[in-house]
Amino acid sequence: xARPHPLSGFPEWLPDGRVVEQHVLEVLRRTFELHGFxxxxxxxxxxxxxLLRKGETSKEVYVxxxxxxxxxxxxxxxxxxxxxxxxxxxxxxxxxxxxxxNAGRLAFPFKRYQIQKVWRGERPQDGRFxxxxxxxxxxxxxxxxxxxxxxxxPLVMAEALGALRDVGVPEVRVLVNNRKVAEGxxxxxxxxxxxxxxxxxxxxxxxxxxxxxxxxxxxxxATPEQAKACLELAEISGDDATVVERVRAxxxxxxxxxxxxxxxxxxxxxxxxxxARRAPGVVVADLKIARxxxxxxxxxxxxxxxxxxxxxxxxxxxxxxTLASDGKNTYPGVGLSVGVSRLVSRLLSAxxxxxxxxxxxxxxxxxxxxxTRPQSDAVATALRARGIAADVAPTAAKFGKQIKFADxxxxxxxxxxxxxxxxxxxxxxxxxxxRADDRAGDQVKDIRSGDQTDADAATWEPPAGDLRxxxxxxxxx
Amino acid sequence: xARPHPLSGFPEWLPDGRVVEQHVLEVLRRTFELHGFxxxxxxxxxxxxxLLRKGETSKEVYVxxxxxxxxxxxxxxxxxxxxxxxxxxxxxxxxxxxxxxNAGRLAFPFKRYQIQKVWRGERPQDGRFxxxxxxxxxxxxxxxxxxxxxxxxPLVMAEALGALRDVGVPEVRVLVNNRKVAEGxxxxxxxxxxxxxxxxxxxxxxxxxxxxxxxxxxxxxATPEQAKACLELAEISGDDATVVERVRAxxxxxxxxxxxxxxxxxxxxxxxxxxARRAPGVVVADLKIARxxxxxxxxxxxxxxxxxxxxxxxxxxxxxxTLASDGKNTYPGVGLSVGVSRLVSRLLSAxxxxxxxxxxxxxxxxxxxxxTRPQSDAVATALRARGIAADVAPTAAKFGKQIKFADxxxxxxxxxxxxxxxxxxxxxxxxxxxRADDRAGDQVKDIRSGDQTDADAATWEPPAGDLRxxxxxxxxx
Lengths: 477, 477
What we know:
Shape of chain A: elongated
Radius of gyration of chain A: 29 Å
Keywords (chains A, B): Aminoacyl-tRNA synthetase, ATP-binding, Cytoplasm, Ligase, Nucleotide-binding, Protein biosynthesis
Distance between the termini of chain A: 43 Å
Oligomer: homodimer
Catalytic activity (chains A, B): tRNA(His) + L-histidine + ATP = L-histidyl-tRNA(His) + AMP + diphosphate + H(+)
EC number (chains A, B): 6.1.1.21
Strand content of chain A: 15-25%
CATH topology of the domain at 172-305 in chain A: BirA Bifunctional Protein, domain 2
Subunit structure (chains A, B): Homodimer.
Low-confidence stretches of chain A: 422-436
Number of helices of chain A: 15
Region (Disordered) (chains A, B): 416-477
């Protein structure tokens, strides 16, 4: 076969890139678990009719068919629309289905994290993939879900992403808004098509305030004053309680106060307060966030990497009053989703984070000649038994070549087994396993410094920092 | 939406089942890393023409199409056969492609592990799924690959699976055979259609020796004596060097010795010897293994769970002389693949392994009333900072109800924050974060024993065994 080329939109990493991705995933997972989120995984497919319930995403779905069905000729059962399967495009739809399917066997409120690939048939571009990894946390209640979870979940994400800063991940800023504030304000102004207004306001970054004002008037029938008020609301942002006061004052100046607005401001204020206490400077109220407000019902979150804002949100979510419903019961939820592939892709392409090496191996055990390979195997076995990853040289090449083998992979240590102690060389094969720690003269070389010292496979320890390949920040000059 | 039903062939676990699966995956991954295998992940899709290169699996492939293309009407580019994508049905085909694609950036021999879902459009049945997790290890060389890897890789798998025994996974038996032994023997007998003979011998378990003897004569044109010899070879098995002697003696009795047979016996003997030394009793030569021999070129492996042999092989693989080739270079490889879903499904359905709980939470921090929630949050924060997973009660319900909340999830400890020390109760909100360790009277209750003791969130430690949810063997009576 000819040398294959990458498929656009389907990212893959070399082993050292995968070390960085694994580190990101481990830190996220660890933080989620510390907060009591249970890990689940759902199947990759859902019935197509379930995936298409949100109309807007319908075009992005990959539909599956069994190749065999083509051969069968006749219209097979799983070509019927209701029986067709598609790949999930997020982890929310499958989670909602999982909750309904297992409602009787889950304890609510149910907190879960889920780290899996999702697929979207979108045109690939920078930061947008057709296959990518998401890491989601959600909490879902049966019938009701206290507001305080809307405060806690973005803080969990801020903590998880913040825990990545020491390997070079930039600072994050979590931007928050609240559907009730926007809706209450627009209704107070007399604008009833809330979705329509949100759709226009969402174009602010693209077309600017003048065009949005024109659109609000032309498309939504707003008066110039109403349009002006909408733009003034969108301009408000900040990380302390004055945000709430400014919105309240703005609403008063337009006589646009409503109960819904007040409820929304109470919620937004509580979130900003708690965030300012628990993660100062990380969470910022940003009243211009409109995307998401049309399907979320309370808080909504977006997250940018400081210095990489043009990448878009790397972690978004919000509150649903109805994450799932089976007609009898309703399950409200709140959650956020990290775009892991988007994040890792940027970390690697921007040269922010690198791996100390691409292999787990700490020690390469050299092989003097094939007859003594069992001795080298025994050293590796002794090291592994104490949690030290070890590999044995593939061939009994010259030691210089074996050291090069380690160097090329970033393996920090090369181990040279000594001659068997009190036994003849020709008997080493049979006894090597039993006498790894009886041998005299084992030496280990740190190939970075060149230092070579006597060592015993039963007791030698590498520096803790060398024990595993690590993700590390790339030094900036 | 109506309550959804599971999709046959697409297994999912409840949170406690996922704890068991995670344990299995972690043990496998840890063992692979200790042996120096680098973790990689490949995309879930491959070009359809690449997936169909092995004819026999073609019917099992799930082909993708973008729903949007249906709407577009015209025959879109990605309906062209060479541009169609299918979900991978194993991890070997994608790994071979990854090796070719990145050959210039990988160091050979390249040892990698890969743990991912694969998909097959097969009819679901016990132990056979349409979506399942595989955990593969392979080592691939550039141009050449020393034989000793054929000895090492099944031993790595035996070690990985053996490390699961203390949580109740049954003993495994790795059955090995060698293509060169079978081919050398058949050719020595004068049977040249080696694939044909293997196909008949593979039916032994299903139809019995008499029928196989008849098939060998009817379909392969074997004489009665040749058929008898094939069956006698298939009967040979054992875990020591006498296996090699028995095959050699059998070949001599039919005057069927060949150089290829001798090479194969040397290899098989070396594998059995090393295995008997390094993992006594685990590896068994079984000359009747035929499946796999038609595409592997050297050693071949299957693995059964002792007591669950009818489940079939849970870990199979072998040696390929050409794992991949780009015309200029050839990459021989050897590897094995664990059917993780098949294994976990049996562990759960047979009640062999269970989880101590389904949530990571060690401590539920109770909430006396909503006004003091920040105090409870502060306790949880202090515990988490020391690696102790903590959750805070969802509401300030009666303590009995909060204890029930913990009990239902298997959370072992409930924490009762005391009153703030030297500050008034009404000031607790503002200061709780700063003074988690100043408060007097925190208590923690082990809800299994009922023991309740004074505790300080800055120093208290749970028993090590409670720190994480664990997979444990189900006690047998």
